[in-house]
Amino acid sequence: MSSLIKKGGLVAAGMIGYVALLFIFRQKYINWGATEEELVQPLPGDELMDHPASNHAITIHAPVEAVWPWLVQIGQDRAGFYSYSFLENLVRADIHNADRIVPEWQHLKKGDTIRLGSKEVYGDSTLLPVTELEEKQFIVLKGWGTFVLKPIDNKTTRFIIRSHGRKENWLQRILVFLFFDPIHFVMERKMLIGIKERAEKGYQPL
What we know:
Distance between the termini: 71 Å
Transmembrane segments: 6-25
Order of helices and strands: HHEHHEHEEEEH
Protein name: SRPBCC family protein
Number of strands: 6
Helix content: 40-55%
Radius of gyration: 19 Å
Largest sheet: 6 strands, antiparallel
CATH class: Alpha Beta
CATH architecture: 2-Layer Sandwich
Organism: Pontibacter locisalis
Keywords: Membrane, Transmembrane, Transmembrane helix
Structural class: alpha+beta
Low-confidence stretches: none
Number of domains: 1
């Protein structure tokens, strides 16, 4: 009995510590990489959300023209999401990240859909519609958010992802706080870095 009490105490202490860390670092991971100006600037697709769930951003040392081909080909049945595919595949998403630009995946347009997980496992429940798209500027995915490329100069790009928040009941808010937001940050941060690394590696400045 005493050992069970000790184990229960350790679990409780671990949970308290985890929640405390979330409170301390929440604003850092919710808005990782984003500047104060980027947090408040209006972006395409803002009308689809009740509030911004997160703003993540990174600077890429390559021009927009070198970054866009990597972004536009995302999708489970296309180039993947350049994140931790081994974690995505724990839930049978069947994602494989590409390390090359594929010409037939470069023609995304408004009205198309992007698949998040395996059709065999999830059917079409993971399809997200492209509600807006401006070539070499932005993609808006309903159910996820807005992906924006902004040129800083002719050799540097700012890549911003604003995820869209929706109204939630108290239980959903707790689950989002404890689980979804930290996991989303880990995966989306890796996606930003994955695109940055590929774009910079493939860019050959004159």
